[in-house]
Amino acid sequence: MSVTTTSSGRLKRRTEGASPLGSWLLAGPMTLVLAIFLVIPILMLIVVSFLDYNSVQILWSFVIQNYIDALSSGTTYKTFAVTIEYAVITWLITVTVGFWIAYFLAFEVRSTTWQMALFLLCSVPFLTSNIIRTISWIPALGRNGIVNTLLLHLHVIHQPLTFLLYSKFAIILAFVHLDTLFMITPIFNSMMRIDRTLIEAARDNGAGFWRTISNVILPLSKSGIGIGTIFVITLVMGDFVSVSIMGGGQSASVGIMIQNEISLLQYPAAAANSVILLAIVLIMVFLILRVIDIRKEL
Amino acid sequence: MTKTPSLPRRALLKGTAAVVGAAVGSGAITGFPMIWAQNIKNITLRQFGTGVSNLNAIADRCKAETGITLQMTAMDTDAAAQRAVTQPHSYDIADIEYFTVKKVFPTGVLQPLDIKKIKYYDDIVPLFKTGKVTPTASVGQGTAPCRVSYVEGASSTKFAPAPTEWMTLIPTIYNADTLGIRPDLVGKPIKNWRELVDPAFKGKAAIINIPSIGIMDAAMTIESLGMMKYGDKGNMTKPEIDKTIAFLIQQKKAGQFRAFWKSFEESVDLMSSGEVVIQSMWSPAVTAVRSKGIPCVFQPLEEGYRGWGGGLGIAKHLTGLERDAAYEYINWYLSGWTGAYLNRQGYYSAVLTTAQKFMSPNEWGYWMEGKAATAPIMSPEGAQIAKIGDLRDGGSYYDRIGHIACWNSVMDQDRYLIQKWNEFSVA
User: Fold this and answer.
1) Most exposed of A225, B22, B226, B298 (fewest Cβ within 10 Å)?
2) Cβ <8 Å between B82 and A165
3) Do A55 and B274 touch (CB under 8 A)?
4) Does the distance separating the beta carbons of B107 and A250 come in below 8 Å?
5) Which candidate in A264, A267, A276 is best for mutational testing of the B interface (most B CBs within 10 A)?
6) Chain-chain contact of A249 with B259 (C-beta, under 8 angstroms)
7) Is the ipTM of this complex over 0.95?
8) Closest alpha carbon within chain B to A241
């Protein structure tokens, strides 16, 4: 095989390209995994979304009724609107919080040891399942929860605040809590790659703090922000657990809509909604990639 | 331990298993649990079902008495229905609810059960046969168990309107559900379903978030308010669904509901934390709140109860010795110990005569006859549920089961119902 460790060998490979067999072997396992666990299931999903069904089972006849049902119903649009709203609000908060935490870790913390220690600290909550992390908000935010009890004791409020739990506020809070790390990590990663001399050069040329941020750090962190954005948007768009728990079942999301359909064995309807959701998320990701060249990161 | 017989004996049994199995399978030997028990020592049956009856205590007892190993998987109602239909080879025994049967059985994943092999068939309460608890009682609207109890033949998937020799499920458990309340926080007597939407409980009410069941609680409330009379609450027409959902949306927008719950635990937490003071609830959830020392009542209401029932079905793929073991397990299930266990949790057993033998007269009086407890009433886990002199909420078996206004259902318009329920979710 042409994979050698000498420098000349490396040079040879780079100029002539890898042997076709070698690259097939390298790409093979991943291709197989993706084909079996991603491509085939998605193809099945698309096929099922075009099948008819009755109240008992799927019928093998091709129909587009599932899409007509979904796209002609105001409920679908409203549900997608609500879900996108969650995604946008969560994104705005996580990108702001994530950017400044990453900035602090990358530029304010000088020692690498502390940088890594603090970064690991950010990931500590991820040692438990995200359902447990979501549920653990309930005793804190409930009518007789920790926050209300504290505020009542301090005489800040005289009636328990009910908007804290089972509300849009609670849902966004849980999303921010769950997803901020997915923003911090890629932004921190891109910031660590920024050449420090660029920042010195900016200062020497008279740029203040905000000027340095907006003209140097922000543009150079763009790829990290892009990756973080993709993570957060896809996580929020596909969620049904957090919305269900924190919204107390009173709020909708596309995920919950699909789950409701599955619960009555209406798989084709659920599949159609899943395909629509997939298309919308892919369009969002495509738009993000148009704005930000993520390849810079890789 | 009796669980591990000596090796030579087991080897011997293995050798004879085929012969005995054939004899048993041919129906030559029936009603000899001892022979069965030796024969099926090594058989494992995979069972799934809802959390209410998939209990380790039952599996342990079954192992000790019959030798059959039960692998139990507990899941929520919706997931159980999906498992039944979509993964028919992943289980041997389906422990499912009757309203699910209406959807599951026609798909052909379960086999009809031969009533001749059911030892206590004659003792099964009439609720599952004719549907009438007492000769004068009415059957109740919706998917009453008797409407989906029988099929027309040994390989049929068509429901029979009257008892035949082939059952879809062998009934095991059922109950009459109503609203749960916090008597210390509601501040007035609760007698009707309409109290669920009383403005006094604004932001402190909850309903169940399983569409087919939640809409029935809403329907009970609407009828109680006198706003509308349904033809059949368990099988609504499109206009009826429209009106019911419109009512729910109006209540939701007014802020009446604190939450919609989906699992047993959620309903317990909502009630015990005081987030909610009145909500749809299940009987053991009330017991769970009470065993925390928090007052909670499963409040009987004038309009009646919403009933549900469950039972054991056998997967289509089960044959031979394994099927015999499944029948043996079902016969054991009905033989009393489990029935008493379920009765003590506030459910009802399908065969009352055998369950009674495993309960003390005090327990039987409290749970079944509506009598005051003469000694403290304990849960199967050993927590005290009632003290001397306490009465069961709703009274006797006949007072409760005889007043079921409608049963958990699958509606003909369920496709439409889901669309409308999603509309309610997003409102």
Assistant:
1) B226
2) no
3) no
4) no
5) A264
6) yes
7) no
8) B262
B242 contact A CB<8A:
no
pLDDT tens for B286-335 read 888 988 889 999 999 999 999 999 999 999 999 989 999 999 999 999 99
Chain-chain contact of A55 with B412 (C-beta, under 8 angstroms) = yes
Residue B394 region by backbone torsions, left for phi larger than 0, else alpha for psi between -120 and 50, else beta: left
Give the helix ranges, DSSP H, for B92-232: 98-104, 183-186, 211-225
Strand pairing of B348-349 and B257-261? unpaired
| Residue the block writes with tokens 């587009």 | A64
Strands B404-407 and B141-142: parallel
> Is the CB of residue B273 less than 8 Å away from at least one CB of chain A?
yes
* Residues of B with Cβ-Cβ distance to A264 under 8 angstroms: 78, 103, 211-212, 410, 414-415, 417-418
> Could you give the angle at the alpha carbon of B397 between the alpha carbons of B396 and B398, nearest 5°?
90
pLDDT tens digits for range B231-264? 999 999 999 999 999 999 999 999 999 999 988 8
Any chain B CB within 8 A of the CB of A164? no
Burial of A214 from C-beta contacts in 10 A (0-12 / 13-18 / 19+):
exposed
Distance from B411 to chain A by nearest Cα, in Å? 9
How far apart CA B181 and CA B272 sit, in angstroms, is: 10
Q: Indicate the Cα dihedral angle B259, B261, B264, B267, nearest 10°.
A: 10
Given a contact cutoff of 8 angstroms between Cβ atoms, the answer to whether B297 and B286 are in contact is yes
| pLDDT surpassing 90 at residue B368 | yes
- Our CA-based measurement puts residue A81 at a distance from the nearest CA of chain B, in whole angstroms, of 10
C-alpha to C-alpha distance for B237 and B234, rounded to whole angstroms: 10
Mean of pLDDT values over A155-159? 90
A138 and chain B: CB distance < 8 Å anywhere? yes
CA quadruple B164, B165, B166, B167: dihedral sign: positive
Q: Is B87 on the interface with A (CB under 8 A)?
A: no
> Which DSSP string corresponds to chain A?
-----SHHHHHHHHHH---HHHHHHHHHHHHHHHIIIIIHHHHHHHHHHTEEE-SSSEEEEE--HHHHHHHT-HHHHHHHHHHHHHHHHHHHHHHHHHHHHHHIIIII---HHHHHHHHHHHHGGGGS-HHHHHHTHHHHHSTTSHHHHHHHHTTS-SS--STTSSSHHHHHHHHHHHHHHHHHHHHHHHHHTS-HHHHHHHHHTT--HHHHIIIIIHHHHHHHHHHHHHHHHHHHHH--HHHHHHTTT-S--HHHHHHHHHHTT-HHHHHHHHHHHHHHHHHHHHHHHHHS-GGGG-
Determine the Cα–Cα distance for residues A265 and B79; give it in Å rounded to an integer.
10
Q: B102 φ, ψ to 5°?
A: -55, -30
**Which one, of B255, B251, B284, lies nearest residue B267 by Cα?**
B284
Instruction: Tell me the backbone φ, ψ of residue B163, rounded to 5 degrees.
Output: -55, 135
* Run of H or E including B172: strand B170-177
Strand pairing report for B93-97 and B44-50: parallel
Q: In angstroms, rounded to a whole number, what is the distance separating the alpha carbons of residues B382 and B410?
A: 37
Write the pLDDT tens digit of every residue in B15-61: 444 444 444 444 444 444 444 555 666 789 999 998 778 888 999 99
> In angstroms, rounded to a whole number, what is the distance separating the alpha carbons of residues B249 and B272?
26
- Distant-in-sequence contacts of A56-60, Cβ < 8 A, 24+ apart: A56/A265, A56/B103, A56/B106, A56/B107, A57/A265, A57/B85, A57/B106, A57/B107, A58/A267, A58/A268
Q: Which of B82, B209, B273 lies closest to A249 in CB terms?
A: B209
Task: State how far the Cα of A169 lies from the Cα of A291, in Å rounded to an integer.
Answer: 30
User: A248 and B258 in contact by Cβ < 8 A?
Assistant: yes
Residue contact A56–B82, C-beta within 8 A: no
